[in-house]
Structure formats: structure tokens, C-alpha cells
Amino acid sequence: MIKNFFLILFFILLANCSFYKAGFWTKEEKIVTVEKNNKLFEKEETLANEFNPNIKIKLSLDREYSNKINFNNFGPSKINLTQKKISKLKFKKIDYFDQFEPELLFYKNDIILFEKNGTLVRFGSDSEIIWKVNHYNKNEKKIGPILKLTNYKDKILVTDSLSKIHLIDTIDGSLLWSNEHRVSFISQIKIDNDKFYALDANNTFNCFSLKDGNKLWEFKTEEKLINSQKQTSIVIDKDKVIFNNSKGEIIALDKDSGNLIWITPSISFDESFQSFLLKSSDLVLDNENLYISNNRNNFYSLDVNTGLVNWRQNINSSLRSVIIDNVIFTISDNGYLFIIEKDTGNIVRSTNVLSNFKQKKRDKIKLTGFLVSSDKIYLTSNNGHLILINIEDGKQDEIFKVSREKISKPYVNNESLYIVKDDQIIKIN
Residues of the chain with pLDDT > 70: what percent? Predict the structure, then answer.
């Protein structure tokens, strides 16, 4: 009898425990109960109605943003499109362009991008080819590697879909060293002094030596059953390196040792079984807070030191947010521009930026990226449109037909706008 009593008591206690899959860290309390956690992850309808559409927004971009270069695709900078002169830098068509996110690399006034078969090309300011190199063998060229690039002084660091790492001289394109990893890479590359960091397709986070590409340490997270070409992002803050993996986890590690500091899920345990459908935005770091959103109706502000949730909004977006002063700009996957108070998470205004399109066309349009200037927002789409939105009232100003197919997110460098399609870099002056 006593044995049965203790057995029943044990099952009651077990049923009321909160495990990792049901719990979530917040500032107010350590672990949220199952009931509260369900509220945090509940599947709400995406906000779709315009909110305070008559509120006017004015920005002040007088202060320097040198420490925020990654916030706005190399801005916020001045953009001068008064001439609307378009020039095209042609290259060999990239296979699977619609399945990944190409990244432009700027070196002074020049542009570096890869083309078909893994060939790297450096274009000069007058559209001339300064150099064109390919450091792959015949069989590797046939596969058509997808490259991820970043700058390091006068060098280019490359990771690819073939699990290779290269360091290339920016001046002449020569190969300085090459190394191999066991699996391909799916993240941005981040450099910190003599190290660099990248996440691979097995959701293992790696720290490498910049001197020779040798691995210094790794941190394994849970593998994903189905991988995609959607890249994940990395930010570095003081002694921490922070990244999001393909399972929807946001993880902070000690950047020197790889020891875990904190881990925070961005989707519920049940949703994690369908994580191959997950599309997350880039992580954005602003002072002591991190911001990230996804296509599962979650927009989070997290404390960078603890991973605790500052606030959450029900916004469905997989695009990189832009932070200027005390407001956040984000655009939902169904075409609503949200302006949010950075500290509170309160929505200041929401506006449908696709309202000028007919409903039949609107349903098929997917925005690929945006950037913010002092008076306009520049949007790109999967049907080749460049859409200019007036910041003050959220209304559409102009539309440019750049291509008939998908174009990349917009970039700005030296007051010119750049957009990538599958066989061209389009420069708009």
C-alpha cells in the first residue's frame, strides 16, 4: 500500500515538472511553466491589419554608424538615385541562384563575387575585371560550389558547400592557403583577431585559426534531419560569439574556449520537428540586446548576456531587421512594414508595402531584403522589383522592374545601390 502511494506521488510530481522542451528563460523567473510557455509559443495569426498608419516617422542619421556596419547592408549610408543610371556587371550564371542568398563583397570601390563553377571575380569601379580566379579542381568545378565570403584586411576568407576553406589575396586573387573541413558550411563567417567562426551543415559550430585554417575548437548542437541553403548568422560581442542554428536555437559561447554560456530556443519543442521549414532572420546586435525573427510568427529581443527574453512580438519575418536610433524596421513575409520601439517591443506603425499590387500578384510576391536610408526604404522581391517606400508615411513612391526573376537583397556602397541577379550585378547610381 505504502509502495503504491509513493509510486502515485512520483508520477504526480513527474507530470508537473518543467523540462527543457517545455520551459523558456525569461528575466522575471528562471523556468516558465508549461502553461506560460504555451502562451509564449502559441500559434497566433500574423498581424495583418494596418496599425496607426497616420503616424509620421522621421529619422536622424547625423551620427556615425561605423560600429553598426552589419545592420543595414553596409549602411545606413547616403543613397543617391537621382540619376537612376543603371550599369550591369555580367558574370556566368550561378546554378541554384533561387535557393541561396548571394553576398556581395566590397573592397574599397571594387566588388567581389563568385560565379558558376566557383570562380571568384573582382570588378573595378568602372566595371572592368581586375582578376578572375578559380582554385578548384576539375571535379569540384563540375559540382558548382556555393561560396561564402568575408573581408580580412587585404585578404578574402572563403568557406563553401564542398567543405573547403580558402584564404585568398585580394590584390591579385592568389591562394594563400587552403584547408578542408569534414562537412559543408551553412553560416556567415565572422573574424575576430586571429580566429574565425563558422557553423557547418551538421549544426557544429567551429573556431578556426586564421593563420592556416586549422580547427581550434568545436561546439556540437543537435543535428537537423533535412538541411537547406538558408544561411545562419553569427555576431561577436566582447567575450562571446553568438549564433543561431537550423533547429531554431540561439547559442552564446565563450569565444576563446567554446564553453557554453547560454542557449535559448526560438521555436517550441513541437515545432522543432519541422525545423526544415524554419527560416530565421540574421541576428542583429545593438548594445546589450539581440534581435531575431522567423517565419513562425516570432520576433524576439534577447538580453545578450543571459539569453533571457526582453519581449516578443507576433511578427512573421525572415528578413534582417534594421535598427536606427530607438526604432526597429522589419518587414513581414506577407509584405507588412513594422516599425517597433526597440526597448519595449511596442508596434508604432504597420503598413502594407505591397498594397499597390493586385491581390493575385501580391500573394506570389516574396520580399528578399531591404535597407533603410534617411527618407526611403528600398525593397527587393522574388519577381525582380525594386520598391521604394517613403519612411514618413509608409506609402509607395516608385517601382523599378530590375529583372523578371528573383533578385538579391539590396546593398549600398559609396552612395550607389547594388543588386545581384543570377548572371549580373546591377548598379544603380
Answer: 78
The DSSP bridge pattern shows strands 147-152 and 129-133 to be unpaired
The CA distance from 262 to 30, in Å, is: 13
**CA dihedral sign, ordered 104, 105, 110, 114:** negative
Give me the mean pLDDT over the 7-20 stretch: 43
Beta-carbon neighbour count of residue 274 at 10 Å? 12
Contacts of 9 (CB under 8 A, 6+ apart): none
Q: How far is CA 172 from CA 17, 134, 419, in A?
A: 61, 12, 25
pLDDT tens digits, 393-414: 888 888 888 888 889 999 988 8
CATH code 1.10.287.110 for 47-95+322-429: no
More confident residue, 313 or 80: 313
Name, in order, each residue with C-beta under 8 angstroms of 84's C-beta and a sequence gap of 6 or more: 400, 428, 429
List Cα–Cα distances, 249 to 236, 237, 243, 319, 331, in angstroms: 16, 18, 8, 17, 22
Position 331 pLDDT exceeds 70: yes
| Domain boundaries along the sequence of the chain | 47-95+322-429
Output the pLDDT for position 126: 80
**3-state class (DSSP) for residue 315:** coil
Rg of the Cα atoms in the chain: 23
Amino acid at 340: I
Q: How many CA atoms lie within 13 A of 411 on its CB side?
A: 22
- In whole angstroms, what is the distance from residue 250 CA to residue 245 CA? 7
And the C-alpha cell for 229? Answer: 541553403
pLDDT at 340: 94
Q: State yes or no: pLDDT of 253 exceeds 90.
A: yes
Inter-residue contact 378 to 79 (CB < 8 Å) = yes
Pair 385, 399: CB distance under 8 Å: yes
| Polymer length in residues for the chain | 429
The x, y and z cell numbers of residue 171, run together, are 590584390
Asked if 199 and 187 touch (Cβ cutoff 8 Å), the reply is yes
Quick one: DSSP state of residue 200?
B
Name the most confidently modeled range: 164-173, 215-224, 268-277, 373-382: 164-173
